[in-house]
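Note to self: user wants both folds in one dump. Writing first protein now.
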Amino acid sequence: MGTTITNQNSVQEEIKGRLKSGNACFHSVQNLCFPVCNTKNLKIKVYRTVSLLVDLYGCKTWSLTLREEHTPRVVENRVLRRVFGPERDEATVELRKLHNEELNYLFSSPSIVRVIKSRRMRWAEHVARVGERRGVYRVLIGRSEGKRPFGRRRSRWSGNIKMDLQEVE
């Protein structure tokens, strides 16, 4: 299980593949366990221990744009809707899907994007401590050679770390 990055510094295909694998793991466990166990706490533990670990493998090196941050949120909300199920609306007495804010309140854990950012910051701290002699540090600080293509510059991993630090403050 490695991490694939394109020559354009895009990890979108990597994220899609990880989320697809995590979703497959969750479905396989769901078909085995969920008919037997009806408690939501157990379903959330299964999601955290099986699906989330597969989804977040290698996320320390991802350089995410806002569009790429949207995809893991959608997948997480879909799984949480499956876990918590629909809610009965008191006014119309009909079942309705839970809104994202309600899911975040019921889940009461950091969202998948927040977890990605915290893991990325921990990795940045580790790389900073490694020192200049190691290849990882040189890759982080180094500049690429050659001409840059036209258009807006692609966001880099170090730029994402700076934005994460500003969010924390």
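First done. Writing the second protein, which came from a different request thread.
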Amino acid sequence: MGLQSIFNRYLLPGFVFQGVVIGGGYATGRELVEFFLPHGPIGGLLAMLVSAIVWSLVIAISFELCRLTRSYDYKSFFTQLLGPFWFLFEVLLVLLLLLVLSVVGAASGELIHNLLNVPLIVGTAALLFTIGVLVFYGSKVVELFISSWSVLIYLCFISLVVFCFVYFSDEIKQTFLHEENTQGPGWLLDGIRYASYNLAVVPMILFSLQHIERRKEALTSGLLAGFIGMFPAVLLYVSMMSNYSGVSDAPIPSTLLLKSIDIAWFSVVFQVILLGALLQTGAGLIHSVNERVESSFAAEGKSMPKVFRSVNAILMLAVSLVLATQFGIIELIGKGYGLLAFGFLAVFVIPVLSVGVFKIWNPEKRQSINGPSKADR
């Protein structure tokens, strides 16, 4: 097995998951402020560990169920989990999709304004247009962009931590030693809550699993995916401890860190990388919807016209543009994500951990959507 094959089977799904998750909020640092910072430095890290563990378990089971049933689009996948009630996920998905794209649009407007001093609406519209162009070219282009840009994200976030420790190691140390951590189960509940709504993107990255042939590959890649997805968040969170009191009110806390470091070239590079992360998220989400539409055409023996990819993207991006300009990123993340978390816990997390496990171990209870799966080896 060559290196490319190993990467595709064990690491690519994790990087695609990370690529879709990161741009919707935590690349900016805003999600970390909302869900983890209230629990203090240590409490926040414990909550992030809970989220990573929940991600890994649910993703591993989802990947194996997908492999066995060859359900590479979310409608097929949720038909396995929820039967005739699969549409409940799609209702929540549409709401989340529009919310995430709005967050992406609002964040990109802030970033491009910082870089080029153009109006917020110009930056928002420019990134959303670029997303539409990218998804027009389909799975291979989306996979290549997400996986390659994820490597740059890792390098950039590691560099941010290094700079923060070089310049602010004393401040970070003092924060962990002296800032109060909340008592009680709050960090545990917020870790689960944060994991729940972010897991909604898992059925939207199933297109990246078609390289996987064996149970070992599905389970291993799933377990790795949770920690691949969370690692950059941990790096950013630790860096944020250098300005513990200041990040709470910042629309994009990561740019506040960049101003503190005050290295012009790194500030530009980091913000460009963040824009790419936002582009990853938007492209991954819209591409998953296109895959769902394409599967409906295939079920009727037809091919989806390529122009439909652009039409779907334009419609979703237009609504998101309106939402992004009406509401700021703080309000979108603070109110929208928290409410949707409980819905995805009910229609995805709990069914995967119950119905999904049952069907994996009871072959007669599942149905392959696109022909037989590869034999377990």
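Dump finished. Worth passing along: The longest helix spans residues 139-178.
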